[in-house]
């Protein structure tokens, strides 16, 4: 294998001088102007994508990867919902159902949620802050290329490999089940491969977080100060800080679990080991929720004002609430453990912090609503997804406040209520913000415009499907239906059938999205104007659109003289050259 890798490296070195198009750490270029080395010396075809260190290319790679993972995870859950359409259905075995359940959760959280955020941040953070590239371009590329093998390891159990079966531990990997204790089949190597894949994704996320922190601190244009740094960059900076503290802990816990499984150690296989795993896992697991939701909040805070015709209301308070969520997120992990019998005084303190963290989230929500109040609202597809985000986030947040209360949590714990609450956040909020960003920035990374009618069909089908599926799950939880079951009592049949109908509506919506996305990318009308959303009319143009305008002009004039970019942000005033004089 080593000889093979050296041979591949030598072959690539012969056909392309990697250093010829690598940006310098300070953002400069080797010989000539920036436009010259980007357009003339970057390789083309497959070699470009295998060797690129351009932040825009890497952002595209993250986007393709995460959307493929989203499709895989979505198809997994569609199979599960069809199985649950009837309590006597035998389409899937109980074992395979548990396998899909485990892989669906891990796929959506680690292979879709985190990478889709990295897609936006890699592409747009340097453009928003006026940097030429990321601080560490090669590390940026390495962080991405750790993800495909991670996905293959996580999904290895589904491949036709002898004696390998998928993990059935659920995404929380609770011990002693995940440690292989007992007479079950969880000592199978499929669990080890999944854990190794998770470890790779954690290393990838940590490398990316270090890069974003270094980039935002050191690569900003001199006109971009902390006072006028855009809100999306603030959320990415906070998210990266959370990753630095959370993901290494997950990696350590996974390493200990692998040692228990393969080398006879006793971290989690002794008395108290199950509680230890829960503490370690949830100290990562709850900040992970905010790692996933803070950047989508940043996308909504950036996109929503563009189509409300006014700047984001209370910009500073949105920033402060972002930082407050980042700090408080590490003090709420044990609200997942109220039913484990931990000391009541500990439970009360975690309940207090869990209720308190709802306050900065509510600050953001009221700021979004106030931004729209009396605004000149344009119901474009990105705006519809932003409004859908806000409404779904309110439902998901309010249902979460109930779970923060100890007596209510003890009743609803491990029921479908938790599934409904969590998916209102993950699908109803995070995915909706992702779609808002994909549609909003579609002209920049494709140079074309999508079909607006299909975009709105995608929104309405997604909105109806999300609320039908997950609100029904909230009601199932109130009825006492436990989660993670492949069958159920007949009295729950109607509710499960409604949830399955909602999931199928969601599926149709995503099929429309895929068709619209691919077809528009290949054949959509080309964008001739650097301001396709008419943001200039309200003086709401941000730096990435200024860059896009220069890119179009350069393509037309073939090397015309570039002007200094005007940096407009959501906070503070527009910064121009005149302000410095």
Automatic annotation (TrEMBL):
Single GO MF annotation: heme binding
Localization (cell): Membrane
One Pfam family matching this protein: COX1
GO biological process per UniProt: aerobic respiration; electron transport coupled proton transport; respiratory electron transport chain
Membrane topology: Multi-pass membrane protein
UniProt keyword annotations, A-Z: Electron transport, Heme, Iron, Membrane, Metal-binding, Respiratory chain, Transmembrane, Transmembrane helix, Transport
One Gene Ontology term, aspect cellular component: membrane
Region (Disordered): 558-581
Residue ranges crossing the lipid bilayer per the database entry: 58-82, 102-129, 141-161, 193-217, 229-259, 279-305, 317-338, 350-370, 382-404, 424-445, 457-478, 498-518
Keyword Electron transport: yes
Protein name listed in UniProt: Cox-type terminal oxidase subunit I
